[in-house]
Amino acid sequence: MAVSGPIPMAANLVGRDDDGDDAGARAFKECLRLGEIPRAARCAFWLGLGLLHRGEVARGSGWLARARGLLDEGGLDCVEQGYLLLPVAMQGLATGDAATAYAACSQAALLGDRYGDPDLKSFAGMGRGQALIRLGETTQGVASLDEAMVAVTAGEVSANVAGIVYCGVIEACQEIFDLRRAQEWTRALSRWCESQPDLMPFRGQCLVHRAEIMQLHGAWPDAMEEAQRACDRLPQPAGPPDVVGMAFYQLAELHRLRGEFAKAEQAYRQASRSGRMPQPGLAQLRLAQGQVDAALAAIRMALDEAPTRVARSKLLAAYVDILLAVADVPSARAAADELAEIAADLEAPLLRAVAARATGAVLLAEGDLRAALAALRNASAAWQELEAPYEAGRVRVLVGLVCRALHDEDTAAMELDAARQDFAQLGAVPDLNRVDVYIRKRPATGPSGLSPREVEVLRLVAAGKTNQAVATELFLSERTVERHVSNILTKLSVGSRTAAAAYAFQHGIR
């Protein structure tokens, strides 16, 4: 620790939690015997925090209550008062009360500064940054995270606090899709862990963060190895539940993307047992398995339970894909618009790329092909800049489908072939199979170059249905139907719905 005194934490840091807990309890009793109440409270705080982190809520809460009781009984004004504000902040963040978390961390940081305690200042600064992000003050929150990391990278804090702050800051950066910072701090955490290879609690988290970044950049075999190592290094019940859940969720995602559905299902269940919500991955797995109703029910429940806009943003892209699979285009439009709004507010390139793809997919379903192509080109450029080959390949597929709908078969073939190469190199078997179907099967066109959807619309128009009635029957928006009707009139070179209906009867479109 950065303070003197018998606060033994070395055993916990090398994964010997029982030995560390016993040593901490003995140190607590010794401090009490010597009348060193603040130091006893400090021992009780770290014992309680470690137990909470490992999922032992009752014991952890008991030690924290004991620490609070000692300070209250003695009426002591000491730096330990600041440490006991940190669990209050953690509870606030966990329950969605970011205002309480911000107030507690701000007061703790002031006490850390007053008493010259870099551990408390850095820990509280991290929590304050997380709270500001939850309150929508992203710029200020990031600044607080960066400030918290100054003491860590300068070697001014204890190993335990350094690991906590590293992992907390990385998770906060991922929460707001700040990929640049997440990658920078993950590299720093990796170097730190490599310099202290026996630090068990943080090495597992480091492996998970490394796996996430490797997956994004297309190094799937390496990502799989890191995620599996994290799962092996943090077996239950010894590992911290949140970290174990992160590790198994990451493993599940990789199995799903590779088409290893049974293994993905098992890993999602293990993540769920560790307290990590298995969404949106599990809903995406159900979609890939053809269980569309189950996918829709699961993702809707997850969205209903999402505590913040940022949490919703991590679910909305999958929600759009599932809604489009059930042809609920109006709802998909609403979800894509919400995602785009959040992305604009956060000013995060990664989330903007996600939102642009979702918008492009919806525009394609609506038949607004030129607008779809523009959105998808933006998404493609963003994913290329982020060096994310899988996401770039997914966008290429949509670009190919748009070009095909615009009767530019040459460009469509090139885009689909490029996507196929991306998926083949990654081992993305489900996507590879899907794009192969698109490559082999060119959509049939109706008379005068009408698309299959336009033929459907024309058939209903010829039956005397209004645009609103057509929209209801085909699960489209009225605006989309209007656009289809306009395209039909242009392709048929006629000036009215009546003339288009006459064409339909003449050509047997009924």
Topology:
Elements: H1 10-13, H2 17-33, H3 37-53, H4 57-74, H5 80-83, H6 86-95, H7 98-114, H8 118-134, H9 138-153, H10 159-175, H11 179-195, H12 200-216, H13 220-233, H14 241-257, H15 261-273, H16 281-288, H17 292-305, H18 309-325, H19 329-346, H20 349-366, H21 369-385, H22 389-405, H23 409-426, H24 429-440, H25 452-462, H26 467-474, H27 478-492, H28 497-506
Written overview of the protein:
With 510 residues, this protein is mostly helical. The chain is built from 28 helices and no strands. The protein has helices at 10-13, 17-33, 37-53, 57-74, 80-83, 86-95, 98-114, 118-134, 138-153, 159-175, 179-195, 200-216, 220-233, 241-257, 261-273, 281-288, 292-305, 309-325, 329-346, 349-366, 369-385, 389-405, 409-426, 429-440, 452-462, 467-474, 478-492, 497-506. 51% of the residues are buried.
Basic shape: elongated
Unreliable residue runs: 1-15
Q: Count of DSSP helices?
A: 28
Question: What is the arithmetic mean of pLDDT?
Answer: 87
Backbone structural class: mainly alpha
Percent of residues in beta strands: under 5%
Radius of gyration: 28 Å
* Largest beta-sheet details: none
The succession of helices and strands, N to C, reads HHHHHHHHHHHHHHHHHHHHHHHHHHHH
Quantity of strands, as a count: 0
CA distance, first residue to last residue: 80 Å
Amount of helix: over 70%
